[in-house]
């Protein structure tokens, strides 16, 4: 019968992890696009390509995620960049918001 | 609406007389979405959320004012919106096409909001919903042609 080795336990130090407040400059903000029944799929794909500079395949992947799952996280950015992308997407009348990544 | 050619990065469309009139009617409706309808965040857990929301609304309103101005310039520019014997010729740069898409989609989405943002297709036409449904479908019709042209 095979036996399992008992792990050797050594005294150690308990590390205390201090929770730091998240800065607005850190990429801690998610840009989310939400589904609606009115925007054309082809239009949404085009907007993703234009706003993010994505290739068509990636844009289509996120468009389908929005369509099938109700939303898609498009990118994770600093607060300022996330605001910029939300503005760009809203210019095209897409339902986009930014949320703090918690 | 028919894409005639793509020349020097410019899209040249031919519109019949009827298409021209319909397009002008649709464009008159712009802007159709209220900028306050677009929240920056659902969670509202952002710092300075209200101030940022206000800034976003101002930016969207500024953008719409600029689009409206560009729209006026487009339809009065004979080089870009020229009458022909059978209708008109619409010549758009890639940039023009991009903001015209935004304008048309604004009319489409705004009309859908006026219809009460229905999840399903509207089956019954009434005197109240017909103009919004017309605007939504017509804006979509022109939008589809522009998107098709981008794919060529």
Q: How would you state the average pLDDT of chain A, rounded?
A: 85
Radius of gyration of chain A: 21 Å
Spans of chain B of 5+ residues with little confidence (pLDDT < 50)?
A: none
Radius of gyration of chain B: 17 Å
Largest interface: chains, residues each: A-B, 25 and 35 residues
Mean pLDDT of chain B comes to 89
Assembly state: heterodimer
Fraction in helix of chain B: 40-55%
Q: What's the quick description here?
A:
The complex is a heterodimer of chains A (102) and B (152). Chain A has 102 residues and is α+β, with helices and mostly antiparallel strands.
Structural features, described:
The complex is a heterodimer of chains A (102) and B (152). Chain A is elongated and about 60 Å long. Chain A is built from 3 helices and 3 strands, in the order βααβαβ. Residues 1-5 of chain A have low confidence and may be disordered. In chain A, α1 (41-52) packs across α2. With 102 residues, chain A is of the alpha+beta class. In chain B, β3 and β4 form a beta hairpin. Chain B is globular, with a radius of gyration of 17 Å. The chains are: A alpha+beta (102), B alpha+beta (152). Chain A binds chain B through residues 24, 29, 36-40, 42-43, 46, 50, 79, 83, 86-87, 90-93, 95, 97-100, 102, and chain B through 33, 38-43, 45-47, 52, 56, 59-60, 63, 98, 101-102, 105-106, 108-110, 112, 117-120, 136, 140, 143-144, 147, 150-151.
Helices, strands, pairings?
The complex is a heterodimer of chains A (102) and B (152).
Chain A (H helix, E strand, L loop, with lengths): L28 E6 L6 H12 L3 H14 L1 E7 L1 H13 L4 E5 L2
Antiparallel strand pairs in A: 1-2, 1-3
Chain B lengths: L1 E6 L2 E7 H12 L20 H28 L4 E4 L2 E7 H21 L15 H21 L2
Antiparallel strand pairs in B: 1-2, 2-4, 3-4
Helix pairs in contact in B: 1-4, 3-4
């Amino acid at each position: 019968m095979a036996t399992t080795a008992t792990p050797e336990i050594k005294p150690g130090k308990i590390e205390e992890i201090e929770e730091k407040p998240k800065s607005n400059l850190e990429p801690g903000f998610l840009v989310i696009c939400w589904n609606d029944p009115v925007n054309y799929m082809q239009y949404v794909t085009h907007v993703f390509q234009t706003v993010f500079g994505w290739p068509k395949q990636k844009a289509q992947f996120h468009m389908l995620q929005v369509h099938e799952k109700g939303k898609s996280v498009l990118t994770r950015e600093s607060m300022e960049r996330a605001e910029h992308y939300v503005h760009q997407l809203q210019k095209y009348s897409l339902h986009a918001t930014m949320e703090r990544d918690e | 609406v028919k894409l005639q050619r793509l020349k020097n990065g410019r899209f040249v469309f031919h519109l019949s007389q009827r298409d021209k009139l319909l397009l002008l009617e649709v464009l008159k409706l712009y802007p159709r979405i209220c900028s306050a309808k677009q929240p920056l965040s659902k969670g509202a857990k952002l710092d300075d959320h209200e101030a940022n929301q206000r800034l976003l609304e101002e930016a969207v309103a500024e953008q719409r004012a600029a689009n409206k101005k560009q729209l006026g310039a487009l339809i009065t520019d004979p080089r870009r919106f020229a009458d022909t014997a059978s209708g008109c010729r619409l010549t758009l740069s890639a940039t023009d096409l991009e903001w015209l898409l935004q304008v048309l989609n604004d009319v489409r989405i705004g009309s859908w909001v006026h219809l009460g943002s229905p999840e399903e297709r509207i089956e019954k036409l009434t005197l109240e919903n017909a103009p919004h449904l017309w605007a939504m479908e017509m804006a979509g019709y022109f939008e589809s042609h522009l998107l098709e042209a981008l794919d060529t």
